Amino acid sequence: MRTEIGPFRSPAAGGDQRRAYNYSSLRAALVSFRQRIERYQYQTLVPQFLDPVWRRVMTMAALDLGIEITDDLFSVEWIAPAQPWVDPAKDADATIAQMNAGLMSRRQAVASLGYSVEQLDAEIAADRKREGALGLSFGKKPQEQKDCIS
Q1: Which residues have a Cβ under 8 Å from the Cβ of 3 and sit 6 or more positions away?
Q2: Phi, psi at residue 117, to the nearest 5°?
Q3: How far apart are CA 120 and CA 14, in angstroms?
Q4: Domain spans in the chain, listed from the N-terminal domain onward
Q5: Which superkingdom (predicted)?
Q6: Any idea which of 15-24, 29-38, 93-102, 125-134 has the lowest mean pLDDT?
């Protein structure tokens, strides 16, 4: 069965019915789909598959290597792959607004992009150190760059 999205013929719909979808309705559908995927990831995949496999692998490794088995051995943070943005500027502004309102932590914001906050912070620190050593400045407003040069 073949269907098409947009103002096209939809044979499955029975003839020449036309449906016009705008940006907002497509984005709403995508957000809903992503929420379903995230629920599956964190309510099914992680507790029923990933955590048990991780515990088994770490237990076997600890027994094989003679490492003491503690709770720290099993601590793991599962970060799902980032979902592509529909409108990056609006999505970034919304994330910043949530962080400023105290509704989201920076760790949550970074994790929603599919990264580890510790790894990201280490990379940013290394980048800034290297830029400073080379006399480079990125990500500053033009006026701030002029102040650095003079």
Answers
A1: 10, 11, 12, 13
A2: -65, -35
A3: 51
A4: 17-78
A5: Bacteria
A6: 15-24
